[in-house]
Amino acid sequence: MKNGWTGGQYSMIRAIAGIALLVDFAMHIPEPLAILGAIAAVFFTIGLFDRVAAVMIAGAFVWNVAHGLHPAWLAVAAFLVLHALLPPAPYGSLAARGRVDPRGAWAKPSPLLHLLVFNPAWIRPRAEGTVDAVFYDGTCGLCHRSVRLLIAEDASGRAFEFAPLGSERFAQMFGNGGELPDSIVVQTADGRTLVRSDAIVHLQHRLGGLWRVIGFVLGLIPRVLRDAAYNFVARVRYRIFGRTKDACPLMPPDLRSRFGVR
Questions:
Q1: Which residues contact 229 (CB under 8 A, 6 or more apart)?
Q2: Model pTM greater than 0.85?
Q3: Could you give the count of Cα atoms lying within 13 Å of 212 in the half-sphere of its Cβ?
Q4: I need a labelling partner for 143 at 20 to 30 A (CA). Which of 152, 194, 221, 241 fits?
Q5: 57 exposed, middle or buried (CB, 10 Å; 0-12, 13-18, 19+)?
Q6: Using one digit for the tens of pLDDT, what is the confidence trace for 114-137?
């Protein structure tokens, strides 16, 4: 079966596991091994020197099992060793910050990921084989990060094309008079125009895998509440994430053909 893991999905699992490990170690502080384990768990969670941290934590669990800890912890140690063997710096890890290609080595995930009991490829993306046009605020740092997320997590590499709000293509589709409608606008392959939280939920469904699960959960929240949260983030996005000089996010040459929305 095709491997459905992407860097961002794996980083979610790594972060959740890292937080659980940090809580467990924190409960045993001030034991020296617990202090070292908690420090390693922080690095594992944020994705910085995380492979070294994983080996250190796995070694601590093996040592503890040999000295009376329940053998079930060996399964956690095995996951940590597997992590150390996977490609480094998946999208969503601190080590990947500022990388030109948001996919990194995770553009072709390691076959070792098949050892995990779950494959995101089991949750298919919505409307596979179609292409959505994604229009974004070209001056917004958060919007640039969102586009890089879509690029990194689109396993097919063909689900989206991108262009800034106010571009020629945007004007052709929506007109160029008045105030721009939103920070992200999605024109679906079947002709629908989605804005605010509806656009975000749709994009998550288009990615498939764990992203589609998140999209399903968000879709259960009433739109008025989703849009209120979206509007709040939109109001403060420049103060938190800053403005950008270039309309297109930082991308390698082979991905720039997806910008402009023909």
A1: 197
A2: yes
A3: 17
A4: 221
A5: buried
A6: 888 899 999 999 988 899 999 998
